[in-house]
Specification:
single chain, 167 residues, mainly alpha, two-stranded antiparallel sheet, 6 helices, elongated
Amino acid sequence: MKPITIKRFGNWAQARRATSTLDKSIKRAIRSAEEKIARRLIKIVKGHILSQDLPWVPLSPTTKNRKGHDNVYLDSRFYINSIKFWQKNYVIHIGIPRGVMDADGEVELWKIATWMEKGLPSRNIPARPLWGPSIKELGGGPQGMANLVKESINRKLRREGWDITQF
């Protein structure tokens, strides 16, 4: 039986350099994808607030009179101006951060957002979903978001020179 000989071929130094930067490239691509998706979701959410185009339950006559208008989510633009994304513990969060108070300084805005999204029967507030429909419009639940991240990562890595065929 003949012995098997293994011989290196190709540019091994270049391969080592490329694989040593892959981890950083993937991290940058993931971060870029998350930020891109966060910006798109915020644009959709703010667009729905400004255009008032979701099928929300109309405000009660009492609330309409108190506010002086019938726009949902648009009391003082404080809500819409507080929507942002931020990173905490390597996770991107989108919405209204805890600690941001309403215009009167009485209630945290994230609570109001939850009441508006799901409704609060004890205060006679019907559900006026904003975030759920916006996420659905962006690409749906977890699988849709995963597909958006995957597409964005692939584009970013291709721009950095990686041959992405099986990712």
